[in-house]
Design a protein that fits this description.
Length: 245
Amino acid sequence: MMSDVPLSGKSALVTGGARRIGRAIALRLAGAGADVTITYRTSADEAVETVDAIEQLGRRGFALECDVRSEESVRATVAAAVREHGRLDILVNNAAIFETVALDTLSLERWDAVFETNTRGPFLVSREALPHLRQSSGRIVNIGSLGGLRAWAGHGHYCASKAALHMLTQAMAKAFAPEVSVNCVAPGWIGFESDRENQAPRFAAKAPMRRNGSANEVAEAVLFFAAGPAFITGQILAVDGGLGI
């Protein structure tokens, strides 16, 4: 049986952890006993609120401004997180761009922007964190997407970037073993995602569970990989209510 605080004494870094799914992940890891560093790029106010919520759970919280596209920014962020908490056991690569753009009108600038954040970012942060994670026999959990497993016509660049992240997860699982386990949580449609076209009801109707997911359900899956058997590695876990079946 898993302890109520299986991450006691451990330290986690959650990119894009100030709001939405990232915030839920940060709070769930803190609730399981971890000290948590979150990164943000533009959500400074939300970052302060999330750190306060982490500390209300009795854990140490820390927020750092970070551009995951920048090698220099990532290097400084990882170093600061390790200085603050003294170690690094868990990395959650959550920072991402999600947007709807018709593929036949998609600009090269938007294509590159999504890949820089969604795929290059996790590579840069993982590479920089790796020496610390090897010392602690740590875990990396990437946040992929059902869109990386099933094509969505209005999200071609997003889907391609997440499919690349899924493959990167498996490559890292091989390259970083045996010290570090690397897995990926692939959410389906989460209730508060940008939905200007009101697609949420359509996705809910298609899912066998007849609803969309919640950020807390994604966070529980992340906790499974963060606290579960280290022998599990290279896995892509869809948290989608069966939508991808």
